[in-house]
Every structure is written in structure tokens, then in C-alpha cells.
Amino acid sequence: MHNCVPENALLVQHRQTPLWGKEQSIYGKLILEDGTTFDGLSCGYTGPTAGEVVFSTGMVGYPESLTDSSYTGQILAMTYPIIGNYGVPASSYWEDDHIHIAGLIVSNYIDLPSHAQSTMSLGTWLQQEKIPALEIKDTRLLARHIREHGTMLGKIVFDDDIPFYDPDGDNLVARVSVRQVLQEGDGDTTIVLLDCGAKRNIARSLLARNVRLITVPWDFDLFAPDVNFTFDSIVVSNGPGNPKMVGQTIRTIQKAIDQRIPILGICLGHQLLALAAGGDTYKLKYGHRSQNQPCILNGTKRCSITTQNHGFAVGKLPPDFTPWFVNANDGSNEGIQHIEYPFLSVQFHPEAMPGPMDTAWIFDYFLEKVRG
Amino acid sequence: MDKLRKVLVLGAGALKIGQSGEFDYSGSQALKALREEGIATVLVNPNIATIQTSKLLADEVYFLPVTAFFVEKIIAKERPDGILLSFGGQTALNCGIELFQKGVLEHHNVRVLGTPISAILLTEDRQAFAEHLHSIDIPTPHSSSAETLEEALSIANRISFPVMIRAGFALGGQGSGIAKDAGELERIVNGALAFAPQVLIEQYLHHYKEVEYEVVRDCYDNCITVCNMENMDPLGIHTGESIVIAPSQTLTNSEYHMLRSASISIVKSLGIVGECNVQFALDPRTSAYYVIEVNARLSRSSALASKATGYPLAYVAAKLALGYGLTELTNRVTGVTQACFEPSLDYVVVKIPRWDLSKFKGVDETIGTGMKSVGEVMGIGRTFEEAYQKAIRMLDLDFEGATSDKVFSSADSTIDDILTKYLYIPTPRRMFALALAMCNGISVSEIAAITGIDPWFLERIQHIVDIEQALRISQDLSAVRLLEMKQLGISDKRIGELVGKTGLEIRALRKQLGITPSIFQIDTLAAEYPSETNYLYMTYNGQHHDAAPLGDEGIIVLGSGPYRIGSSVEFDWTSVSTVEALKKYGKRSIVINCNPETVSTDYDISDRLYFEELTFERIADICEFESPYGVIVSVGGQTPNNRARALHNYGVRILGTSAAHIDQAEDRSKFSRLLDSLDIRQPAWDTFIDLDGLTRFAERVGFPVLVRPSYVLSGNAMNVCYTREELEQYAQAAAAVSAEHPVTVSKFFQKVKEIELDAVAQHGQIKAFVISEHIENAGVHSGDATIVLPPQTLNAETMCKIEQAGRAIARALEITGPFNIQFLAKDNQVYVIEANLRASRTFPFISKVTGINFIETFVDALFARNEIAPVSFPPLTFTAVKAPQFSFSRLTGADPILRVEMASTGEVACFGDDLEEAYLKAIIATGGHVPAKGIFISLGGEDKKVRFLESARLLSSLGIPLYATEKTCAFLRAHDIAATMLYKIHEHKSPNILTYFSENKVDLAINIVDNHVKKELDDDYLVRRYAVDHNIPLFTKIKQARLFTRAIVTKDLATIHIKSWNEYV
Ligand SMILES: Nc1ncnc2c1ncn2[C@@H]1O[C@H](COP(=O)(O)OP(=O)(O)O)[C@@H](O)[C@H]1O
Ligand SMILES: Nc1ncnc2c1ncn2[C@@H]1O[C@H](COP(=O)(O)OP(=O)(O)O)[C@@H](O)[C@H]1O
Ligand SMILES: [Mg+2]
Ligand SMILES: [Mg+2]
């Protein structure tokens, strides 16, 4: 009885311009290739987009994820429901100079960020970069759907419809790789970063270990006579899409292998090393996109929590390579090592950003081998 | 490591502020983990209301104090080869440290499992620990430790005020505080040094964010953080007093992982094996951080983290302590993935503490670096708004949500007064001052600056305020709006309030528009892998269900909700026991509860767990989804009992005693009419709407009278009035008596026994019952009373009358289920004071003492095909005593006197050959001890002096000095008992009580006053308070004091029996 009193007399001077949360709101649709449709409230750019729909279960680091080129051609659904909380930091904190995802799906978009580092709201950023985003409430249903039926194509549409688009058919790496050779740092050893869409933190991590870093485009022929620099080792970066679409990089790696040049592959780089050395890759049902993937150091009881973002994986290992890491949840391969030479690669991201920094030692381990 | 044969587990003892039910959860999981390995388990825990003290979980249980003295004897007897110290809170940890330092563990070669004791010692010594952290480049606030006031002062001057003061080896922030100047420093430091060897003086970090990580490490050096949590309240308000959110909301990836990496390197540097909690201060401006503290054990936060993520922290910690690697354990929740991972949440949880300060006379309401809350709730949702407002309702304080403002009585007059008081000063009311301030045009940034609460949280609350305003103005109840409001966690009732409709009307409209909540799973992996979990919550931010209804075989068991004064772990025991018993009948149990400290909310207890509100709205939602066979409302304490009527009216089947009959017992006038018709006596009573009525009644039946207002927010302010003046004062002060708030008044019996009947009946026939006796006379709330089994002083006639009354009432109310009746006994007459048609607080006690599980009997009564046979038990060959645990030391200013209002936060029970033995053990188990230095005696009134004379003689035979106040001293000397006279504190003359207390010359204080001699009561308040503040055991009731005297004089601890539960029952 007591609290059926309509309202306490204390609540006097009400703010006179109360707004319903969703005043001039724009609604759009997320349509999957199997016809499944989610209605949602627009919280980004109002324009259609199509791509492959994937979900990530990471709870922090949306600015890092959105600027990760490995998401090129993909509509990213966040399973953590509340997104936008701390706004968008200055671009120096990003993993590339622009957003790479094709579209964003969240459950509860926060338009009033709070953080000392924030320069603008997530929505403003998405609009500036013309990236559509929808607030569909049931992102869990979407994640379950993809888990059960596998990654599928989808599109975000507003008024006019657009066709579906399959990114696997394209060479996405060509789109996101650097255009010209870039040189940074001056350390005792020179590393070439084969940029297939490298996250910036790979370069940051290497430079922090005082090396001379030369970043080259994905299709740069390191062994052409006119190459005017020498180098001690190669890091093959992460990147988007199907590894089999980047033949030129694979050939470069093959030459490096022939010349016994130390190689570290990361994510796509891992798959490319495997292919170059005679292994094979396949597409996972719905990939690994999260910051809590346990990877066991093969043959030990040591396990590391890793960040991952990949749809393809290494199946058949190349001859003379042994498994280095194995995924503790589904047993898929997470890294390989040559039995004799310093050719190694990991499926996860030792550079983190976003996610745990527990495997940064991979860089030290590699550099030890390089420096001998 | 070589195979373990037998492991000793130390429990946490009685629930007290700062150490509550969470350790029943951790201990229970540890015992399960051990049992799976075929390792024999021995549990020491005098807290008889816990689930862990059960024969299903431990092989041997000792209801004995968790002190080095007793545990050493138990070790000598049981000869375990391993011991677990980190599952029983600070109590177990401190006991373990003492055993280690005394060489007991080594002498009996008992291996400490899990985290090495050296690491524990390091984390407990704040100074040494700070140095350790610096050695691994982890920053801590400038600080150093002091053992005297002088030292403390000079350090403070060096660091410069304000400073933070903290006590070493303490828990829940006891003795800690923030000093702005030398004066405050002196007060706090003296207070802390009264029970702690050292204090830490530390740079005060103003309005930093407080963030915690729960870390797990195995002996192979694998290390994971299971959960991070962000306090909504800034640093300076204890995490146990703060609104806490998981996962953190305002941290960037870099901040999150900077702190995560720091946690991991700390835990690795310490060599923790098992679970560890790390607390940080994070500068919101610069992202610089400091480590606040590390708890190398399961803690309140780890229990919260476990419920927040679904990750069974305590179970895993126990396995790791046995030498397993994280990679060797599977994820119990998914059943398919690894235990070596970090849960990913696709929801947010909000924990809010539950305080009961209004129950204490004179208590200081402000909250800060020390704990005062007695329990907590956890709301789960997919928006912060949803989770936050759920949690507010879960408090069960009749708040509808974030904008509730009934905590601000009009007595506090203008808005400005209220805001200056409640927005600036942190108290349990501040969370409601936030919305109130917003409604009155104070901006989020202003509020943030005042409170130190991050604007992010305030904007979410502002959002709720705005949406409610919009509804108030537009009265728009379209589907879109309704859904939007439900997605923000606004209750039907609140929506109704805003549009002048009832909650039920809104509910009907909502359902007609097809707006109902979704059932979501907590699966630890955000749907990345399929999962078998039965751990569920409801949200309006969804469009599918993760679970299918159980239908007819489902039985809903309503849990207890937050722990609070008057309803605590005992009702978790009754709930869990019900779930256990249901298995026998092939029923599927569906538990609804919202308290993260409970075992009933563990992943492996029920067939289905809804971590949800115990509000009518939510229970009805669940019933409509599950369409269960029925609902059990009688095992979760008063909260579920209160829902019976509404649920019944809504068409839900209530199992057991009918809602109408429950109401007949709850409604005083209906009940007393029933008693008259059965001619069972009751104290004269009546209800009035004005002072006149009250006074006329009082003068007719004669003072004293017991008055209870019909409505008072949180805790019914009962009071005994001995004179007309007191009655008038009461009526004015509380402004309690009016037409809409009538007051019930009854004749208050003095110097009479209080007796309890606990029973289970089927179709009105009692099938099992127990009569137990209070040591204290009536006037001490049954929850604060010392209860003894079997009764010691009841004659056959009284017992028989009680039994007859019980049978008559059971028959009349056609009871099927548990019930409890309280009686007063006066010269062979018995009077009924109340009947509760539900399991009472004493059910675990009586069940474990008699060996009959009364809850099992109840479930049999519900489901057995035919009439069940009466259960009886042979006469007890021992005596069991249940004694209350008080937490006055944390409640600054509260008068530690026993009244008709309950004040205790927990209980213990101990067994003995006779009353004295059992009582002595029980008193030690609640923090008391046998005096060795000096005894202080102060007896009010001639009659009390005379009645205590014999005991005084006995005490003087102990050969330690007696101290007494002037009159008492004269009296003792007149009967040639030597005593030293001390002046009362307010007399400011020496020798003074205060100096003797603070100089540790006294280790037992007996202060007995007639509650009705107002002046004495007030004069002696300081004495009682100083006793509490100086950690001196205090007795305020003559019957207790006399019993304790007999106990310490006739019993010798050295030869006292160390017997396990199995040896008694
Ligand atoms: N240097 C400090 N400045 C401000 N507040 C502090 C400081 N240190 C601790 N606190 C506050 O005091 C509370 C209790 O301190 P803590 O060390 O955690 O004691 P306990 O062992 O009781 O948990 C913390 O939760 C925090 O809010
Ligand atoms: N008429 C009375 N005379 C003396 N003591 C009483 C009387 N009524 C209640 N009490 C005391 O007050 C306590 C609380 O009263 P009770 O009616 O049981 O309230 P609650 O519902 O809080 O248990 C009882 O345990 C008893 O000690
Ligand atoms: Mg703490
Ligand atoms: Mg009672």
C-alpha cells in the first residue's frame, strides 16, 4: 500500500524538457543469407553495407577491434552488450588509421561516453567513417545462430536493399596493406614486416625491443635484385580473409624459407607460413574471435590466455614442422615451429590490443633466435 | 605430491559484518572437491546454520571455536595430513597463521595446501608487502606502519594529511578510517590499536576509481583472471560497502589489461596456488594506478565474482590446492571447455550492499573505509539500468527502483537539506539522493564532482530519471514505450505509479501487448560454445529463451534474498535442504534467489537457478514461463512468506499450508481471535490510532507495554515503554501513531521465560516437534537469545501445555509444513506471542541437534503418498547451546544492549555434557574468552545486585582483580568480596573505567541495568560502548552473566571435551 502513493511530493522542479530515449530514431535491418532478420536502431552511419557476419566475445577494446584490418569485409557483432562506454581515444591509440569493419552490431549503444582519453562518441566516429551500426537487442540470439549454422553472409539495410557480398572471394590483403616501404627504429637487428594489414601494435612491440623495422607491402619482392636494404628476419603480419588469396606473399615466404631466414608468422602470417611450407588451411565453422582463448604450449601443462581473430585455421601441418600451441577448447592448431630452423608462427595475437598481453614473450623468443 | 588421506578444513564461524555467508559457499565447494578425490574431510565450524556443516559434505564436523587452542586439540585427535586455510575467511586464515607460528602444524606434520603460509604472512603485513611490491615495480600509495600513536603521528605529518589509516590482520576495514587532522588520527589509531598490533598510515587517494581482479594460479604457474569488478563508489568507500559492477564499465582496453597484468605478476611473485583477490586504485585523470591490497584467500569479492561469471572459483581453488593444473580441470558450466580460460560475460551484474543501520540505537550512518553492511544482492541484466534497478528491488526494502525516494522522510524537510546531507555524505541513502538530485536539476557533472561517482554511471541513472519524467508527462503506454521502460528495468508497479494505475493493470496491458521477459543462460563464454548450465536470469533485452519450461515436474523454491538482521544463512540451509529432499520424489527444483553469498545459488545445487528478484512481478513471470507444479514459500524466511497471498490470488499453487491460513497467522487480530476460540492465552493487546487509546490501554493492563508501529521502513521499530512519559515520547518521536499508521500495543511481561516450539505438520497433524528454551528472559529478541536444547528448567506441565497449544493451532490452521510458535511462560501458564507458518531461524539448530532433518520431514509431508508417521527422537544425552554473534564493534556508536529488536548478525552452536560446557564453548566461539586479567562489574538496582551476589563470590575465587562502580563496589565489599572502585566515564575522575579499559587491565565486563531505569541505561552506555571498542567481552543480562560465571569457574578448558558431531548425534 505504502508505495502506491503516485509520487513523493519531494520530486518538485522536474526538468521541463523530458525526452523519450529514442526520439528522432532511425531503424534498420540486419538480414542474414538464410533469411534471418533482426530489426535494430541505427547508432552509426545510415547507409547499407554487406559482408560476412561474425561475433566477438571480447568485453573491452572496441576501438582496437574496429581498427583491426583483419575484420575487413566483416560485419562485427559484439556479444558484450554495452558498447561505447569510454568513447573513442585519439587515433594514436588505434590499430590502424581508420575503421576496417564493414558494420557493427551491438545490443546497448552508449552515446554518452565517459573517459579522460575520449575525443568523441563511438557513434560520431562511425558516422565520420561512414560505418553503419545497429542496436539489435538480442545479440546473444545472433551469436547462437552463427555458432549453430556457421559464419554466414549478411547485410545491414535501411530503405533500399543491396546484394550480399562474400569477402572470401577477394584479395582483401591488397586493400589493407601499406602502399610503400616504411623504415623505423635503428636497432642491432633488422626485421622486415610483411604487412598484410598489420595491427600497429606488432610494430610497436618490435620497436620496443630495439630493432630496425622495415615495413613492406604484402606483394613486395624482398629478393628482387633492386632491393636496397639487407635484413635479418621476417615477421609476417595478421590480415583479413582467405590465406589462399595471397599467393605473392606465400611465394616471398617460400624464398625466405629456402634462404633459412628466420620467420615469425602471426595470425594470417601463421596460415601463410603453413601454406608456404607445404601445409594446408581450412575455414572454421565460426572462427575464434575473443580475448579468452586458452592455448596449451604443446607437450606441457602451460596454458596461455590469448586474443584471437581468425576464420581460417591451419589443418595439415607442413613437413618438418611440429605443433607449438594447441587450442585447449577445440584442439585446433594455434602455432607451429620448424624442427630445425627458426621458422615459427602463432595463430593468436602476441601483440594483444585488445586483450591479454601474456604471450608478448613470443617476440623475445623470436628475437633471441634471430640475434642468435 | 603424495596422496592425501585426510584434510582439515577451517570454517569462518559465525556470520558477522565483514565476514558473511560467502564462506559457507567457499567451504562447501572445497569439501565437495575433496570428497570427489576420496579424501576424508574434517571441518571445524561452530556455525550450525551453514550448509557446509552437513554430514553429506564433511566426514567429521566439529562445532567448536575456530581458534588455535581448539584446532590444535582437533589436529592432535584427528591427525589430518593436510589443512585448508583459505576457505574460511580471515578467521580461518588468522587461526592458521597462529597454528603455523606456534609450530603446531609442523609438529603434527600437517601440510598447508595451496598458497604457502609465507605468502599469506607477506600479504597480511601491509608494510612488508608494500616493500615486496616495490621490488617488482608495482606501485602502492606512500605509506608506512606504526605500532604506537606517536609513530603514527610523525608518519602522517611526513605524508601530510589527509591520511588513510588501516589496521593489519583485520578484515572488512575494521578500525580503518580517513584522518583529516591529528585529532582524528589519534581517535582512529587508538581505536585500531585496541585490537590490531600495527596500523598503516597511508597517502589518501581522493576520488580514485576502485577496481578489483580475481586471480587464479596453479602450481604450474598458469595464471588467469576470472573476473574484474569496478566500484561505482570511489575509493574511500569499502568494496563491501560499494555498489560494484562486473565487468568494469569505464576502463579502456589498456587500463583493463594494465591492471590485469599487474595482478598476474603480483600473484606469480607470491607463488599463490589457488585464488587471490587484488584491489587497485585507478586515477581517472591519468590512468596511473596503485595496489590497495591483496587477499590471498577466497573473499567476499571472489564469491561475488563466482556468481557474476558462473566460474566455480572455490571449487577450482580447492582442486588446485590438491596439485591439479588448470589444464586438467574442465569448465563445470559448459562441460565441454576448459577451466583454464577467462569468462566472457554477455550481461552486466550490479551488486548492492544491504544495510540495517536503522535497527541500531545511536549508530553512525555514514559509510566509508570500514564495513557496516550485513548482506548484499546481485542484479543481472543486459543494460546497466536493468541490472541496477533489479538490484535495488532485490534489497527487499520496498524500493521500486533508482528513483525511489521514500528513504527521505519529510522530517528531513527541504530538498536542499536532504541533498546537502545525503549527496555529500556517503550513507546507505546516497544511491537515492542521486536520482533525487537529478530530478531537481543538479547536473551529472556536479553530482560527479561531489560524489566521485563516474559520470558514466550517473548518465545511466539520469536516463532512467528522464524516461520516467517523459512517461509522467506523456502518459504514453504504447508498446514501444512499455518495452523501452522494461528494458531499463522499470517495474510494472513503478510504471503504474507514474500513470495512476496498479502494477497488475500494467502487467495485464504488457502481456496483452506481448511484452514479456526472455530467459537467458549464464554460460561463461557468451554463447561461443554450447553449454549445459542451469544458471538463468531474465531480461527484456532479448527476443528468445535459452531454456524450455520444466512444467509439472518443476517445483519452485523461493530463497531468502539478501542476508540481513533477522534473516540469514539459516534460511539458505532450509532452502538447500528442501532442494535436496525434492530429489527423493523425482521433482525438479527451481530456485529463485538473488543473494551472491549463498550456497542455494551455486551452479550444482538445484536443477534450475533463477538469479532473480523475489518480487511478485518476477516470481509471477517465472511461474508463467515454467508453469511449475507449485511454489514453496515456507523455507526462505519472511520474504517468500510475504509473497504467498499475492501469488495465491494470482492463481499460483502454494504448496503446503494455504495462503489464507498463513494470513490468518500473520494478521494479529485474526490470529488472536483464533487463539481465543481455542482458549489459548496471549498477552493482552490492542491497536490504536492515537496516543489516548494507547495510554488508556497501558493504564488498564499496567505498564510496561510493548508497542510496534504498523509501518516503519526497514526493521519494525518495536519498543517497550515503562512509563506514560515514555509512551508519549515514543508516539511523538516516531510520529508513529496515526489513522493510516495504527500502532499495536501489548502488555509486556517482565521476568518471564521465553520458549519456542518448532514443528512440522501434515494436514494439521504435528509430525515432529522440538521445544527449546531461552536462557534470557523474554524481552530479548528470540534471534538474539541464547537457546538451549534440551530445555533445562521447564516442568512437565509447561511442556505439556506448549505441546497442546501447538497441536491445537496446527489443527486449526490445517498446517502442512514447518512452523514456529513463540511462548511466554509464567507460573505454569503459557502465552503465545506469535506463530510463523514457515521454517524458523532455529530449524538448522534443532535438526542438527536432534538428528532429524525437519525440512526432509516437511517435504515428505508434501509429497509422500499417504500420511507420514510421526518422527520422534530419544532424550538427548548432551546439551546444545545456540548463541548469538553481535557485530557492535563495527557499528560506531551503537549501544550494545539487548532489546526486543534483533541486533545480532549471526550465531553459533556448541555441544557439551552439560549446559556450562556448551555455553563456554559457544561464548568462545563468538569471540569471548576466559578472563585472566581483571573483571569489571556494574549492577544496576538492589535486586540485581542481590541476584548476582553468588556469582560475584565465584568470580572472586578466580584470583583475578574485580573492579566495580561505586555502588556495586560498596555492595560487594559489604559482603566481603574484595573489589577496586572505578569511576564511571562521565564522572571524569580517576581511577576511571576508561583508563582501565584502554590499559587492557580488564578482559571481562558485566554491566547489568534495568532497561526501564532510563538514567542508568544512558550513564552506562559509554561503559558498554568502550567495552566493545576495546574488544572486551560484555554481558548485559543477569542470566547470561550468572551462567558464564558458573561456566568459567566449574570448567577447565585444558580438559574440556573435543567431540565431533558424530560422537554426539
Ligand atoms: N590510500 C587510500 N586512499 C583512499 N581510500 C583507501 C585507501 N586505501 C584503502 N582505501 C579504501 O578503504 C577500503 C578498505 O581498505 P582495504 O585495504 O581493502 O581493507 P580491507 O582489508 O578491510 O578490505 C578500500 O576498499 C578502499 O575503498
Ligand atoms: N508481551 C510480551 N512480553 C514480553 N516480551 C515480549 C512480548 N512480546 C514480545 N516479546 C519479546 O519481543 C521479542 C520479539 O517479539 P516478536 O513478536 O517475536 O517479534 P518478531 O516478529 O520480530 O519476532 C520476542 O522474542 C520476545 O522476547
Ligand atoms: Mg579490501
Ligand atoms: Mg519472534
Topology of this protein?
The complex is a heterodimer of chains A (372) and B (1065).
Chain A: E1 27-32, E2 37-42, E3 49-56, H1 62-66, E4 74-78, E5 82-83, E6 103-106, E7 108-109, H2 122-128, E8 133-135, H3 139-149, E9 152-157, H4 172-176, E10 182-184, E11 190-195, H5 200-207, E12 212-217, E13 233-236, H6 247-258, E14 263-266, H7 268-276, E15 281-297, E16 303-314, E17 321-327, E18 333-338, E19 343-346, H8 361-371
Parallel strand pairs in A: 3-4, 4-6, 5-7, 6-8, 11-12, 11-13, 13-14, 14-19
Antiparallel strand pairs in A: 1-2, 1-9, 2-8, 3-9, 10-12, 15-16, 15-17, 17-18, 18-19
Helix pairs in contact in A: 6-7
Chain B: E1 6-10, H1 22-36, E2 40-44, E3 60-62, H2 68-78, E4 82-84, H3 89-101, H4 104-107, E5 111-112, H5 117-124, H6 126-135, E6 143-146, H7 149-159, E7 163-167, E8 177-179, H8 182-193, E9 199-203, E10 209-217, E11 223-231, E12 244-246, H9 253-270, E13 274-282, E14 289-295, H10 300-309, H11 313-321, E15 348-354, E16 375-381, H12 384-394, H13 415-422, H14 430-439, H15 444-451, H16 455-474, H17 479-487, H18 492-499, H19 503-512, E17 518-521, E18 535-539, E19 554-558, H20 569-584, E20 588-593, E21 608-611, H21 616-626, E22 630-632, H22 638-649, H23 659-666, H24 668-677, E23 685-688, H25 691-701, E24 705-709, E25 719-721, H26 724-733, E26 743-747, E27 753-762, E28 765-774, E29 787-789, H27 796-812, E30 817-826, E31 829-836, H28 843-850, H29 854-863, E32 879-885, E33 906-912, H30 915-925, E34 935-939, H31 942-956, E35 962-964, H32 966-974, E36 980-981, H33 993-998, E37 1004-1008, H34 1014-1029, E38 1034-1035, H35 1038-1050, H36 1061-1064
Parallel strand pairs in B: 1-2, 1-4, 2-3, 4-5, 18-21, 19-20, 19-22, 20-21, 34-35, 34-37, 35-36, 37-38
Antiparallel strand pairs in B: 6-9, 7-8, 7-9, 10-11, 10-13, 11-12, 12-15, 13-14, 15-16, 17-18, 23-26, 24-25, 24-26, 27-28, 27-30, 28-29, 29-32, 30-31, 32-33
Helix pairs in contact in B: 1-11, 7-8, 13-14, 14-16, 15-16, 18-19, 20-29, 22-23, 23-24, 25-26, 30-35, 31-35
The site of one adenosine-5'-diphosphate has 21 residues of chain B, from strand 7, strand 9 and strand 14.
